[in-house]
Write a structure and sequence with these properties.
This protein is mostly beta strands and 144 residues long. It has one domain: Lipocalin, CATH 2.40.128. It has one helix at 2-20; strands spanning 27-51, 54-80, 90-113, 118-141. The protein is globular.
Length: 144
């Protein structure tokens, strides 16, 4: 069952990546956080979602498997298929193989949630980090 769920998550993330290539974003976001991993990794951070002319603070926490290292993360994101603010919070999944090795690096990740919201995150990383496996991120809106 876990293998099926992982395969479904990977397929969903890949199809979401192709779909956003031709869509216009519904919202944008900025993000700062940290990540640390020895085997299982943990990521935490905060950000601001800009949606329909308003800003909404959020927090994010997540895990990855088969990771090693630590890094500080800053990023910006385009958010697609956000029809309602209530659709933004939740669990996001992505399939990824990536990392940066002892340098200022960065990358792009595409994450999606069960409500069809897709986030394309562009990061700037500082540190040593390597993740090889599916990743998940839980996003919650903060009270203003």
């Amino acid at each position: 069952m876990k293998t099926f769920m992982l395969a479904a998550s990977i397929a969903l993330a890949l199809s979401a990546s192709a779909a956003v290539a031709k869509d216009q974003p519904s919202a944008t976001a900025t993000f700062t956080g940290e990540s640390v991993a020895v085997g299982v990794g943990y990521t935490w951070g905060k950000g601001v979602l800009t949606y329909k002319g308003h800003t909404y603070p959020f927090t994010a926490k997540g895990v990855s498997v088969l990771g090693a290292g630590a890094e500080k993360i800053t990023g910006v994101a385009e958010v697609y298929h956000l029809d309602s603010l209530a659709d933004f919070p939740g669990a996001y999944v992505a399939a990824a193989v990536g990392g940066s090795v002892a340098k200022a690096g960065g990358g792009t990740a595409v994450l999606t949630n069960a409500k069809g919201v897709v986030v394309r995150l562009h990061t700037k990383d500082k540190g040593l980090q390597l993740n090889i496996a599916a990743t998940g991120l839980n996003v919650s809106l903060d009270k203003k």
